[in-house]
Amino acid sequence: MTGYDPDKIEATVSKQWQENNTRQKVLDRNEGNERFYFLDGPPYASGNIHMGTGLNKILKDFYLRFHRKLGFNVHSQPGYDTHGLPIENKVEEEKGFNSKKEIEDFGVENFIKECQNFVDGHIDQMNDDFEDIGIWMDWENPYVTYHDYYIEGAWQTFKEAYQKGYLYEDQYPVHICTRCETAVAYNEIEYTKLDDPEVYVAMPVKDSDEEFLIWTTTPWTLPANAAIMVHPGHEYSLVKFNDRKIWMASELRDQIMEKFGIEEDEFEVLKEIEGSELEGREYNHPLEDIVPAQEDVQGRVILSERYVDLEGGTGLVHSAPGHGKEDYEVGQENDVKQISPVDLKGEFTEEAGKYEGTHVKDADPQIMEDLGENLLYSGEINHEYPKCWRCDTPLLQLSIPQWFFGATQFRDELVDYNEEVNWVPDWAGQKFHEWLEQLGDWPVSRQRYWGIPLPIWECQDCDHTKVIGDRDELPEVPDDLHRPYIDDVELDCEECGGTMERIPDVLDVWFDSGVAPWASLKNPEIDFSFEDVDTVDLELEGFDQIRGWWNSQFITSHMTYDQKPFDNVIYHGKVMLDGKEMSKSKGIVVSPEEAVEKYGRDILRFFILSGNPADDLNFTWDKMEENMEFLNILWNTYNYKDTYTGETERPENLEIEDRWILSRFNSVLEEVREQCTEPNYQAYKAAQTLEDFTKNDLSRGYIKMIRDRLKDGENQEAASWTLRKVTDDLLRLLSPFTPYLAEYLHEGEDSIHMQDLPEVNDELLDRDLERGMGIFQDVEEAAARLRQDQGIKLRHPVKRVTVSGSEEVEQAVQDLEELLKENLNAKEVVFEKVELDYEVKLDYAEAGPVLGGKVSDAEEELADLDHAEVAEKVEASESVELAGEELGSEMFDVRTHVPEGMEGEEFSDGTVYIDQERTEELLDEAFVAEVIRDIQQKRKEAELEVEDQVELSFSGDTEPLEQHEEEIRSRVNLSELGFGGEDLDYSGSVEFEGRKIEFSFSDPVE
Predict the structure, then answer these.
(1) Structural domain boundaries, residue 951
(2) Helix/strand/coil (H, E, C) string of 523-574?
(3) Range in 118-132, 164-178, 366-380 with the lowest mean pLDDT
(4) Which residues on neighbouring strands pair with residue 202, listed in sequence order?
(5) What is the pLDDT of residues 51-108, one digit of tens each?
(6) Total domains present in the chain
(7) Whole-number Å distance between alpha carbons of 342 and 224
(8) Same domain, yes or no, for 910 and 949?
C-alpha cells in the first residue's frame, strides 16, 4: 500500500460509486424505517457554490449520513430558492436592464422565461458542484420554489392567513428600493455609512413672531411634514438671536448656538417652559405655497415621550407620517394627516408641485434653496443608512398601499414556540427570542414580476376581495401559475356578478422559503406530507437566518398550523480567510474547488467538521495541512493493520492492552453517538474525539504496545483480532466524516455507507481500566518530556522509573507494571513517595513591608525551621510566624529538589522520576538500539520493503551485539547474521559511548 494520495483515492471511489449507483442505494436502503425529517434551507440558484455554501452543505451531509447509519429513513431532499430580486437582478445584469420600464419594454413573459432559464441552469450546475464534494442528497428531486406544486403550497398558507384574519391591506411607511421599485421587508434591510445633508429649519408659529426649530438629515421629506413632536417633560427655551425668536430644547441650546456661530452674549433666553405647554400650537409650513399636498395640512405640535430625545438635533422632531414608521405611529394617535408625494421610483408626484418628476435625493438642494431664510443652518453628516440587500441602493420610507401579515397579533405565541425548540448553541435561541420580541407586521407584497403571485382577486365594480388557496378554485388554470399567465385569469364576483382581476403584486421571496416545511413535500415524487411528520426534525443554517428563514417559517407555521415548524436547529457562523471575512470583490476568497484541488474532499470535510460551527470558521492552509497529517496517520494505521494482521477468530484470552483499546473504542463510540444526535448535535466534538482516539490511543498507544506481539510475540492472535476489530468498527464510525477514505479502506463487497454504525458493546466497557490507562498515558508522556529535557532517547533503557501520586496512580502502576516497563523502556518501574528536599525563602517584595527592620531576624529563624513543615503550611495557605510577625503564604517562595541522580516531571495526578545512572549493561543495550536504528534507516534509503529479508554482517565491538542477537534478528528481518565483517551491498557504521561497529547487508534474499 503506497502513501495517502487523496486525488487517487477519491477518483477511484467516485468511479466506484458512479458504477454501482451507490448514492441512490444508500438513500433508499432505510425505506420503511422511522423517518428523520431534515429540511434543507434553500440557497438561491444564482451562482457557483462558495466556501460558505460548501460549509453549510458539508455539515448537513454529515448529519444525514450519520442518521442513515443509525437506521433512520432520512429525508434528503435539497431545495432551491428561485424567485425574487436575487434572481431578477442577475437576469437584469445579463440583459443590461436598469429599470422596471426596460423589463416592461422587453416583455414580462420574456423576462419570466429568462428568469426560469437562469435558475434551471444554475440548479443543474449547483447539483453537480455539491455532489462533486461528496454531498449525498436526492439531487434528482429537489424542491424548487418556482414549480407549480410549490406555489400551491404557498397559496394554501396565504389563504389560511386570510381566513384567520392575519392578512390585511394598509398604507403606511415601508422601506422601498427605488432601483428595484418594490417594498423591502424589515428582515431584508442592511445598513451602510452615507454622507447626507443636515439642515436646521425654522417653522413659523401661526399668528406669532416665534418659530419652532427642527432638524433633519432628509430634506426631501420636508414637503410631507405634518407635525412637530416634542417631549412633554423636557424643558424648552424661547431664544432670541439675530432678531428672531426660536424655540429649542434648553439642554441643546448652547450646542445649537455654537453650531450657528452665535456667541454667548449674542443670544437671549426669553422664556423656559415644559414641552407639554407647547402641545397644539400651530405653525405655517415654509413650502406651503410650493407643495400642493400642504394645502389641506395644518401643522401643529404633538407630544411623544417615545421618540423625542436629547441625543442631538433640537428637541423638536420633524414629523412626516408618510415617510417614517415612528412618525406614522404618533401621527395616528394624534389624527395627523399622512402625506407621501413620492412614487416607487423615488420621484416626486404631482402632489409635490414644482418637484414633480425629480428623484427625491436630487431634489434636496432645490428644497434647501426654496426654504430661503427659514434654513438657518446646513451641513453634512456621515451616518448609518438602510440599503437594499440585493442592489445596495439606499432605501426610502414611503407610504404606498401594501399587503401585510399581522405578525404582531400572534407575536407572543411565536415567543412561546421558541421555548420548545432545541437550539445548538442555546445562545442562538436567545438571539431568536430577542428578534421575535420586537417583531413587527410583515409587508409581504412586492411590486415585481418573478415571484409567487399573490392569490388575491378584486372586483372591479364592488371592491369585493377573494383569496384562493389552490388551482382547483380557479375557473381556468394556466399552464404556468406565474405572471403574466395568471394575470389573465378572471373570476366572477360572488357579490355583484362583476369581473374580478388579480392584483399585480407577487409575494416576498422570504415567504417562498418560509412555507418550505409543507410546500416542499407537495413534490409529486415525495411519498409523505407535513401532516405525517408534524414538525421538521432538524434544520441547519447560517447566522443570517435568525431574521430570515427561521423568522419566516415561524410566522407561516403559526398561520397555517398554529404550531412551531421545527424541533432542532443547528446554527453556524461565517467562513473567514486568515481572520478576515471572505469577499470575492476584495479578493479574500478560497473556493471549495480550490481547497479540494490542493488537499482533497475528505480533508476539506474534516477541517469543516472539526471546527465549532457556532464560531466563525477561520480557513487557513496550515489547518488544512494539520488535517492532512491526521488522515496520513489514519492511512498508516490501516496500512500497518493490513501488513501485520490477518483474519482470525476472537481468542479466549485478551491481554490488558487489548481489553483497554476495546473498552476505549466503545467509550468513544458511545460518546460520538451522543455528540451527533439530539439534543447535542456537536459533530465538531465527535471529530475531535475521533482524531484524538486515532492518534493517541490507537496509533501512538495500542499499536506501539503490540508491535512486538504482532511479530510472532506472545498472544499474537489476540493482538491481531483486536486491532482488526477496532479498525473495522472505527472505519464505520469515521465514514460520515471522511466518506471517500473510509470507502477506500473498507474491506467488503457492499459499500461501507450501506452499513449501520456499530453498537456500543457494554461487555467490553471497563471504565476502571480506562482510567488506569489514562494514568498510564500521562506517566508515559511525562517520562517522554523528562527524557527529552535530559537528552535520554526513548530507545535507550533506563535503570528505574519511580512514580508518585494519588492512590489511583498507585493502583494503575501496580496493575500496569509490565506494560509500563516495556513502554517506558525501564528495567524497573515502582510506585513510591520520593522524599523531596524543600527550600523555603522569603519573598522580599511581599514580606519586606511587614517585617521592616526585622528581615534578618526572620531569615535566621527560617533557617532553623524544618523547611518541609514550612512548605506544607505554605501549600495549605496557612500563615507562619517569624520575628514576631504572622506572614501569609504569599510571602514565601517554596522550591523542591529531587534526590541526587534523579530528575522529576509532573503530570496531572503525580510526578515521574527517572534514575539517571547509566551502567555498562544499559549502555550496551542503548548501543544495540542505535545500531538497529541505523540499519533500519539504511534499509529505508535502499528502498527495501518491511517484508524483505537480508543478510547482515558486523565487525568491530560486536560483543554487545552477539548478546542481543535474537533481538536484532527479529527487528531487522534477517535471513542470515554474521560477525565476520563480510562486505555486502550496503554498509554503515555506528559509534556510541566508546563502542564502534561497522555493518553491511545484502540486497533482498529470494
Answers:
(1) 920-1001
(2) CCCCCCCHHHHCCECEEEEEHHHHCCHHHHHHHHHHHHHCCCCECEEEEECC
(3) 164-178
(4) 213
(5) 999 999 999 999 999 999 999 999 999 999 999 988 998 999 999 998 889 999 999 9
(6) 5
(7) 10
(8) no
